[in-house]
Amino acid sequence: MTITTVSSRHFNQDTSGAKKAAREGPVFITDRGRPAHVLLTFEDYQKLAGGNASIVDLLSMPGVGDIEFEPPRLEGNFQRPADFS
């Protein structure tokens, strides 16, 4: 993975070059020398954002069975009569 850094001015002058560079890795776009934006391919973005995985996909991932999860037991009366007014 290659990380590329370009200035806002350079990005505006060569957007297609930045898009090509994003195929190899993230492109940091600076504004007055400071990182301001990151250009990613949509596929890379989906990987970071988690994509459109369903709960079934997530629960079937390898290693999920090794995760210990013990939710606290709820106590009290959580039922109430329906209000039809």
Topology diagram in text:
Elements: E1 4-7, H1 8-13, H2 15-22, E2 27-31, E3 34-39, H3 42-49, H4 55-59
Parallel strand pairs: 1-2
Antiparallel strand pairs: 2-3
Give a structural overview.
With 85 residues, the protein is an alpha+beta fold. The protein has a domain at 4-62: 3-Layer(aba) Sandwich (YefM-like fold), CATH 3.40.1620. It has helices at residues 8-13, 15-22, 42-49, 55-59, and strands at residues 4-7, 27-31, 34-39. The protein has a three-stranded mixed sheet with strand order 1-2-3. It is elongated. The termini are far apart.
Radius of gyration computed on alpha carbons: 23 Å
Q: What profile does the largest beta sheet have?
A: 3 strands, mixed
Given the C-alpha coordinates, what overall shape results? Answer: elongated
Number of strands: 3
Helix residue percentage: 25-40%
CATH architecture of one domain: 3-Layer(aba) Sandwich
Class from helix and strand fractions: alpha+beta
Supply the CATH class of one domain.
Alpha Beta
Side by side, the strands of the main sheet go: 1-2-3
Average residue-wise pLDDT:
88
SSE order, one letter for each helix or strand = EHHEEHH
Could you please say which CATH topology of one domain applies here?
YefM-like fold
